[in-house]
Amino acid sequence: MPRIAYLVSSAREIELADGTLHPTGYFAEEALKPYERFVAAGADVVVVTPDGREPFADPYGLENFFHYPEEDQDYFASVTRTFHQDPDDVRVTLHHMTEQGLVAARRIAARLKERGMSASDAHALVSKAAKIAWREDRQLIDVMVEEGIDGGLSRAEIQAAVDELDEASRALAAERRRRLEAIPGFRNPVSLTDLTDEQLAEFDAVFAPGGHGPMVDLADNPHVARLLTILHEKTAPIASLCHGPALLLSAPEREDGQWLFDGYRMTCFTDEEEDQTAPGKLGLPWYVDTALKNAGAVFDDGPAAWVSHVVVDRNLITGQNPASTEATADAVLKALQIR
């Protein structure tokens, strides 16, 4: 079966624009889901870090709002699609997803159904309130109560639905962390620096998850350059997700003097998305999106921030953000013909 170099940052801190250090590492969901998908498909997955040090889960990536249960995320998506006739016109930010209670819509609708409301009427009522909260930057619970769109639910009942989501998200984040810590390769990774060119050539693909860590130790790394060059020469899949495409900045020039991936279509965590994150608000020294464009990438981002978007160009596979995790992993499996 194919042998995949699972290239994970081992960085623990990133220097911000003002020179201060901020905790960083790999993004938990983006590291766990593809790994488990690849193993389940039968691939030989080898966890590799630049220096052989144990990778570190970015504390920011373990915040509960990055770990909403899928059924809540799907229902939230069905609600936001009612905001405009054209879904491409909907702009949902990290602020909306983390601070307004909108993702609790499914659990609020469930309580409305318990009161005897039909599923469609419950969806319509929650969607109406959510649209107001989204437009006016208000808490969903405040809109439902203050605008009389509560369907008979008390403030306490609506708050209980939000609290229930928060508890489920925290439990999921903790579970994902436990599963990552149980993977032997994450406890004892292979050192990329120690691998010979012959050993690198034994890999059939490379995959790099995100988190801000790759900006620290994958973006200007001669050993990452060796890996990319060797795999690219045999047109093996080179895949990365979110901030993971920072590894492409280690790629050397071709014989014509252009960057190895000059003219390739690709995506990554966009500047728009970055500006909404906690590290982005503190001030990062550079942006992966801008750096790839400057290097020669034909940048291809999704119709909106935070939506799933994957770009495949020849042997290069890139995913835009955490929402793109599963689709990016599936694109790798398809390229390896083991899906």
Q: What is the chain-wise order of helices and strands?
A: EEEHEHHHHHHHEHEHHEEHHHEEEH
**Portion in strands:** 5-15%
- Helix/strand class: alpha/beta
Helix share of residues? 40-55%
* Apparent shape: elongated
* Sheet with most strands: 7 strands, mixed
Q: Helical stretch count? A: 15
Order of the strands making up the biggest sheet: 5-4-1-6-7-11-10
Describe the oligomeric state of these chains in a short phrase: single chain
Structure description:
The chain has helices at about 30-40, 70-80, 95-100, 105-115, 120-135, 140-145, 155-180, 185, 195-200, 215, 220-235, 270-275, 280, 290-295, 325-335; strands at about 5, 15, 20-25, 45-50, 190, 205-210, 240, 265, 300, 310-315, 315-320. It is an alpha/beta fold and about 350 residues long. A seven-stranded mixed β-sheet has the order 5-4-1-6-7-11-10. The chain has a two-stranded antiparallel sheet with strand order 2-3. A two-stranded parallel sheet has the order 8-9. About 45% of the residues are buried. The model has no long low-confidence stretch (mean pLDDT about 95).
